[in-house]
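Reproducibility note. Readers wishing to regenerate the assembly model reported in the main text can use the exact inputs given here. Chain order matters: entities are listed in the order in which they were concatenated for prediction.
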Amino acid sequence: MSALLIVLVLLPLLGAAVVGGLVKAGRDAAATSSGFVVALVELVLTGVAWGLFDPAAPTRFQGESSVPWIPAFGVSFSLGVDGIALAMIALLAVLTPIVIAYTSFTRAAEKFPDDRGAGGFVALMLALQGVLVALFAATDVFVFYVAFEVMLVPMYFIIGRFGGARRQYAAVKFFLYSFLGGLIMLGSVIGIYVASGTRLGQATFDWAELQRLAASLPESTQILLFLGFFAAFAIKAPLVPLHTWLPDAGAQAPIGGGVILVGVLDKVGVFGFLRYCLPLFPLASQTLAPLVLVLSVIGVLYGALLAAMQTDMKRFVSYTSIAHFGFIGLGIFAFSQQAVAGSALYMVNHGISTAMLFLVVGMLAARGGSTQIADYGGVGKIAPVLSGLFLVAGLTTLSLPGTNSFVSEFLVLIGSWPREPVYTVIATVGIIFAALYVLWVYQRTMTGPLRGEAVVGGGPGAASARALAGGPGFADPVDTDPPSGTGTKARFGDLTGREIGVLAPLVLLIFLLGFFPQPVLDVINPAVSATMSEVGVPDPVGPNGVAR
Amino acid sequence: MLTELPPVAPATGAGTAAWLLVALPALGAAVLFLGGRRTDRWGHLLGTATVLASFVYGAVLFVSTLALPGEERVRDLPLYEWFASGSLSVEFGLRLDPLSLTFVLLITGVGSLIHIYSVGYMAHDENRRKFFAMLNLFVASMLVLVLGNGFLTLYLGWEGVGLASYLLIGFYVQRPLAASAAKKAFLMNRVGDVGLALAIFILFAQLGTTQYTEVFARIGELSPGAITAVALLLLLGACGKSGQFPLQAWLPDAMEGPTPVSALIHAATMVTAGVYLVARTHPIYDLTPTGQLVVTIVGAVTLLIGAIVGCAYDDIKKVLAYSTVSQIGYMMLAVGLGPIGYAAGLAHLLTHGFFKAGLFLGAGSVMHGMADETDMRRFGGLWRHMPITFATFTLGYLALIGFPFLSGFYSKDLIIEAALGGPPVRGWLLGGAALLAAGLTAFYMTRLMLMTFFGPERWRSLTPRSTPWDPAFEASTPSEHGEHYHPHESPASMTVPMIVLAIGSVGAGAFLVIGERLGGWLEPAIGPVREVEEAVIPTGLVPGIASVLMLLGAGIAYLTVGRKPVPVERPARVALPVRAARADLYANAINEGLIARPGLWLSRALVYLDNRGVDGAVNGTAALLGGASGRARRTQTGFVRSYALTMLGGSIVLVAALLAVALP
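Running the prediction on these inputs yields the following structure tokens for the assembly.
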């Protein structure tokens, strides 16, 4: 399995190079197809890794390998996965081919600015995947840091080259925020390296060594180092008030970029909380937990209220994610087995539900030529399948029982309650707001009489003309105007078979993980238990509810 | 007092396949949703067949359970581990006991009848298949709700029926009012769901489990305060689902849904889930007199609100909806009274299921023949034109107002007797409310009967109002909706379910109550029925007093409505109480003023803050540092400068961190 992890990193990177070469050669169709094949192979290999992973194994990491990289500083290219990292890699492996298929093969395929083909986008996606796999699988803090910074580059170009009208602004804002956070983290990375040198005699970046060291660091040092990591992760996650780059980036990124950005890349933040903040700085984590909890709970309500008030659907999706990241933050810093496991599962589930929501919004926008909510109305009448799947996406976003998100949200809340009842009550009230923002958007776009410029106005052309004038940059995806008199229904059109094919795996996962989440939880639970014992806080509810 | 709980045995025999009860309608829903237009031709038949099959299987289970001795009638059927982490393990399983099986028969029985009725009622609707898919989804979710063997499975069904209700209220998707009503219902239900969720959190934190068997066996370990908290939070959930005060405002709006939906979901089954919840968790309520008292107060307040507002509406479905609010108030009152009331509340739940579903189907039949009109002021004299509807509706009416020896007479009497029991002040207040509402019920229902079926045929001089939002209307033939109303009797697929329900309205009360048949059957699940000991009025007098009040209410209705001409336009100048009742006793205004508007203001303020404040501060800082760069389109140069500045900032932090580490 150790070789497999290296392959999982290298395959998408090599694939990106090949796809990039084909794009340079002007063979865009071949580029996207080969990129799709690479992503599928990666998915199969990830499935093999999942099968080889043994949840009952006594060690935290499996498939470990290590190659010396910069021996002078004790840096090794070390890989290995625990259940949480594996779950994130699997999520990425599922989403990448879906995004590539959506961008390359469906009617909804966006026309990118300056008539760029999808090939370049696919190459960047694969490059991003390779870097992210390295990031999740890194067991060396320096490798993690490098991956953390490098992943910004493909995403910067995905937004900046393939995004909407204000893509430059959004890309720079994204980059600056993340890069600033990364630099602050670098301070802490070097700090803990130096500390390890003085305390262990031999400075190291090895995660396991540093974790052993962590317990002996004085609390004041832990707090400083914690804050360095925390700043980077809180921007990435993002926690309020460091969130303002996300709505811009989410709205300006192409749909596929948005899926990976919000679905996976942002998870690096909460993954960082779990892998770096908690185990490396247990005392600081406990001391500073109230700070994170407050920010998280504010995020739940703040994100929800702002989501409800958005006029643009892509910004809407971004704000719902801010609310969901609040739940994840709450769960992680409530320090109980159920809450932390719920948060880890939430990271997977939110990736699936956000992907679903982004893609459905993209398919809607491909028809109407706008992402403005006010441009739509009564779409359910003319596109019932699209509207039905929009509702499915909405229901998993509001965590309806029976969908995947419910299990994770409920675990977070039920696990947080024993230790943090006040924050839990506030967050639980958030489920009312979740219903509000989802159903309100659904009501305005999908129900009622046909209305809105994108639906009954001059068709996609009219709305996209407006969009080019300053709104989101969706070009008209319909090449030829259908003959007049075919009616709104024919012009707008319901989902095509390919579009349904893109969404089908997500719908399947939403309900499968809603009723049978245990296989994923079985993989996650041991890593959570390990994290809990590293933090050193006893579970608040023991067997038979013996409160401790 | 701690209730003796019967042992829970594993399910055997016919019970081992009880998951089929849920799986059949769920499968029907899945096929109809996924099958699309291909299933249009036979979709409604499949939907009906799956629910009928569930009913037959439910009846088999019922009979096989009856054959068991009393102490073996409570059985568990674990299916699989839904999710687990640490000390929490949530099992997906079914509880088969007299309480759940009673609900299974009610849900699948009334559900089957309403499926059959809908075949005719929705015949002209191009989305009939979708309608049946949603109805099947509802039946499956409702069965999960009542059959689940733990609080999490209950929650799954609880929100599942909420979704089905949302979909069906908003079924006429073109109609803006329907979409608003659907959203309102879901949101107010979610308020209740928060209560339910918090109750589950407390139970887990204190007991480490959420399964009924362990929770009920060990509930006594909790402090009295915790038990009361759980009871009140569960009640919040019950109020949301059952349209009880203060969460009653969504139920009348829910009448935007097709009428069979109103009959099945918003009268007979889903809205009684709150009563089920209290009965199911009776080991909790039995330990908290405070919790029980609050339940009875909520019930008494709601039954009065429903009865008062019901007197003022002219919309036939809304009158029935408020009547439902009021009748569920009776049931809540009963189950809040503890062991003297459980059986009474559940008896009323069952008889109400018959007569209220029958009344709604009758209202649907009237609408079917009257171009979807619901304003009773435009009806009148319809008994001549739809005799079967009239006859079945009359039996339902008599059962509802408690006419002697019909269903409602027996079940409502039990509740009034139980309410009069107990300490004098409480007995007078609760019993008085129940008696007063009995009179009001007779008034508003008699008014409804008189305006709809008797008096001059006011519709003769009117033209039907157009309802362009309604696909069923568009699809129907022009002759049906010409310039005049053409009231007619409905087809057999609609009248037969009405007749069956009318028979239930007549006989169910006597069958269930006499000889304590229902009480005896339910005993293993909810404990023995306790007799009312000291009532403030001798229980022997109650049937007489209730009957007198009923005649009084009906008589006043006859004098004020039956003897005078009914204006087609609703009088605007009315007395203050009528105005208050027409405004739902200001429930919506209060919600609007206290929650909706401040919430909107807050949200707008936050949007402003987010754009100008949080983001503005960030952009402003960037502009300040980077020399007015990052913001606009001159991003290339700005990018480099900001980059350099960021590097500088990062380096400073880095050095600071290094120093900090080196210091100790």
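We highlight two features of this model. The CA atoms of residues 11 and 100 of chain B lie 14 Å apart. Chain B touches chain A through 82 residues (CB under 8 Å).
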